[in-house]
Amino acid sequence: MFLEFAWNAWEKRKLGEVATITMGQSPDSKNYTLNPQDHILVQGNADIKNGWVEPRVWTTQITKIAKKGSVLLSVRAPVGEVSKTAFDVVLGRGVASVGQTDFLYQYLITLKINGFWLRYSTGSTFDSINSADIKDAIIFLPEKNEQSRIAKTLNCIDNLIAATQHSIDALEQAKKALLQRLFDQSWRFKGYSDPWEKRKLGEVVERVTRKNRDLVSTRPLTISAQDGLVDQRKFFSKTVASKNISNYFLLKAGDFAYNKSYSVGYPWGAVKRLDKYPSGVLSTLYIVFKPKKINSQFLVTYFEGTTWYVSVSKVASEGARNHGLLNISASDFFDQQLFFPTKKTEQESIGLTIKVLDDLIAATQSRLSSLELLKKALLQDLFI
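RE: above sequence
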């Protein structure tokens, strides 16, 4: 992608000279009802950044309205978040409307990235910027034709980013539905009709308790919901393991680990397989095991779903949760009931099907990251 412009000097202007600045106002709860129609209230940076707004119907005449396509700027901490409106919105306090041009939208994103508005921030309890500072902020503008071409290029990338994110969302929904159908057996692969077998997890896997006595590995591991078992130094940008790791569990490629800490999206903890490295060390707070009489990829798929929640929840003491750590002993964990196909070939088919979908999701996420990096680089090169 190449942008060819006449390299004319950009013009120095005040933002208030090229855009109509409209500051929001403090809403009065008496003036609206909560029916999901008509104007939408945008209160501040959280609404702008997260795309979340609360629907309200206003019962009195409101003048602080931003029309569809307006550029919104957060004026309260953290200042500088930018968004475009897809519909008419009511401006609450903490938000300003800054014109309706695509070029300004992209320009303001660059200012956010570079912390431009922090120099104007005031306030003792939280950062904020006032209308005078917004209007007097100095920006540099190219001629109209160049503005248009820059905006079109960046909008094109935005559309690609949005479409790619939509693809990821759709693939993740498809994976969730497929896991549900495969494990409730409402969908079976052709040629398989035998009933699934019910066994204790400990009957088909073997617990791993080997220690790192001889310092076979110096790679400290942690569990990431997205990336599985990963090196702490890459995940945290530092090591959080003890200096003496000789008493840590020594994991080898293909071993599984259960993190008993619950988090958003993982109410009963997470189970991941070591795939990225030949070995690593892990705190003894984790429960480690390896497949014995079950297909390894099927086991990965099983713990990606939610079927195992039913069994493990029965042995986890609700009253014993402490600082995010579930009270599940190793013996209780291995006593959980597991339903699985008796034929290894069906196990393999299920595991590989979900793996193909996981690989597609990972490739699409990689494409999204590349597009986001491209957008950031273009913003820096074009506006700085």
